[in-house]
Amino acid sequence: KNEVEQSPQNLTAQEGEFITINCSYSVGISALHWLQQHPGGGIVSLFMLSSGKKKHGRLIATINIQEKHSSLHITASHPRDSAVYICAGSNTGNQFYFGTGTSLTVIP
Amino acid sequence: KAGVTQTPRYLIKTRGQQVTLSCSPISGHRSVSWYQQTPGQGLQFLFEYFSETQRNKGNFPGRFSGRQFSNSRSEMNVSTLELGDSALYLCASSINRGTNEKLFFGSGTQLSVL
How far apart are the first and last CA of chain B? Predict the structure, then answer.
């Protein structure tokens, strides 16, 4: 069992839909990261959070420390949001634990 | 400000050879970490360097090694290459890394071992 589990593995949505990607972790972490990877490999760090909620444009990330669960929400999805979204936990020992990623396709 | 630069972008090697990959962090960033990404295993943490010292290491064999120079540039070396080492190798930099800072990733080096 992976230390970080993501769901769903694959997601197809119509443009404009509200999207949620879930991440659960079983290890102790001090921060949870949401990463976006487009075809071609480049990774962009979207959020890093250790509590509560963060918002950037149409993206919202939340974390519940007690439940060891985080969600990434995309409002008014757009085809350019199509990418792989990866959650990762990091601890104070600078270890990183990655989820297997959620492949999102937004259809026009 | 220039981003994280990885060279080369693509590399083809044969089994048994060794390879060195390079990563130049964002100016002012002192921490560089390395990751391996494969279709089967996903992203995995290799190691992290800060001020020329390896601070942490993932679960990889000793064939994987790295170093960091005084200007924060980092190199990663893989000796005695195996077919399973074929992967995208990514590096990321951050200012200090000790406080769970946001990471900035390079575009990666795609290594193919034949």
Answer: 37
What does each of the 108 residues of chain A score in pLDDT, given as a tens digit? 678 999 999 999 999 999 999 999 998 888 999 999 998 778 999 999 989 999 999 999 999 999 999 999 999 999 999 999 999 998 876 678 999 999 999 999
CB B106 within 8 A of CB B25: no
Check CB contact under 8 Å for B42 and A40: no
Tokens linked to B96: 């200090």
Point out the residue among A30, A86, A94 whose CB comes nearest to the CB of B43: A86
A73 token code pair:
């929400």
Interface probe with A: pick from B103, B107, B111, most Cβ of A within 10 Å: B103
Q: Concatenated DSSP letters for B11-43?
A: EEE-TT--EEEEEEPPTT--EEEEEEEETTTEE
Q: Please compute, for residue B14, the number of CA atoms within 13 A of its CA located in the half-sphere on the CB side.
A: 0
A50, two tokens: 């250790």
